[in-house]
Specification:
alpha+beta; L,D-transpeptidase catalytic domain-like; eight-stranded mixed β-sheet; 8 strands; about 20% strand
Length: about 210
């Protein structure tokens, strides 16, 4: 078996539940193959160019790939200056996953849908909310234009912590917000806030 085959096999094992035996901090590390990183960086660059005029900072782009289940690190911080990709767990909205099986089924821009929205978001200022320090988001596409008024934000949450995977094999659900593990959220505060781009869709990057 080649090195590439071994890595591919490991990735499949993670997807089927073997990830539950791994140390929690593994989920805050770059985990995918180089080919997947190239795809993430390409999406980040494409969306940055599409939205460049709206952005204050263009060094790092957040890419949320909701084709993956909540048990896998699907929130990627793509550094376009260094080519580095770091990946984190992120929860989706309960309205996007009514069966609560860990898979996002649908997006919504509607009020009271409790669903995640797709599209490009601009990160705004920090504020203190229900889950502590959080980052407001402005949606700039038709599919997420209500994000600010819906209070769709980026915040830490206990139900997005890795220990949820040990108990349930999936994260909890938000009310449509991008909820990260509490120990990882400082990464967003330092590297994704302040007028940067966050792009979310069902991308299927790996």
């Amino acid at each position: 078996m080649t090195k590439l085959d071994r890595r591919t096999l490991l990735a499949g094992a993670v997807a089927t539940g073997a990830a539950l035996a791994l140390p929690p901090r593994v989920f805050a590390q770059a985990w995918s193959l180089t080919g997947q990183h190239r795809k993430i960086l390409a999406v980040a660059k494409e969306q940055l160019e599409r939205n460049r005029a709206r952005l204050w900072r263009t060094d790092i782009v957040g890419v949320a790939d909701f084709a993956l289940p909540s048990s896998l690190p699907r929130f990627h911080f793509a550094n376009l200056e260094t080519g580095q990709v770091r990946s984190f767990l992120v929860a989706h909205g309960r309205g996007s996953d009514p069966e609560h099986d860990g898979f996002l089924k649908n997006f919504s821009n509607e009020f009271d849908s409790l669903a995640t929205s797709r599209g490009a978001f601009i990160t705004n200022e920090w504020y203190k909310g229900k889950y502590g320090t959080s980052i407001r988001l402005t949606g700039v596409d038709p599919d997420n234009s209500n994000a600010l008024d819906r209070a769709i934000v980026l915040h830490p949450a206990w139900y997005a912590n890795p220990d949820m995977l040990e108990k349930w094999g999936k994260l909890g659900r938000s009310d449509g917000c991008f909820a990260m593990a509490e120990a990882d959220f400082n990464e967003a505060l330092w590297h994704l806030s302040g007028g940067r781009l966050l792009y979310a869709d069902r991308l299927g990057l790996g």
